[in-house]
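Dear colleagues,

I hope this message finds you well. In preparation for our joint manuscript, I am sending the (apollo) hypothetical protein (Parnassius apollo) sequence together with its predicted structure, so that both groups work from identical material. I would be grateful if you could confirm receipt.
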Amino acid sequence: MPIQLDYLNFLQNNLNQTLYEAEVPEDRITEMWLQHDGAPHYTRAVGKHLNERYPNRWIGRGGAIIPIARS
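The corresponding structure tokens are as follows:
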């Protein structure tokens, strides 16, 4: 599976489960920000998913907040 699809699959199907298993409270998850590094796994599909799941709450290429270089 191409890395872009693998990453999208993780975001869609595994991230929430990982947070649940780490016992992160649901109210914290809904307020959480995601810092996306914009590496080669970024695609329009990934950006679309992040915009839907983290509207105006994700940092990275194509996001509401552009990261500081080497942050």
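For the figure legend, we might mention the following. The chain has one domain: 3-59. The chain has a mean pLDDT of 81.

With kind regards,
E.M.
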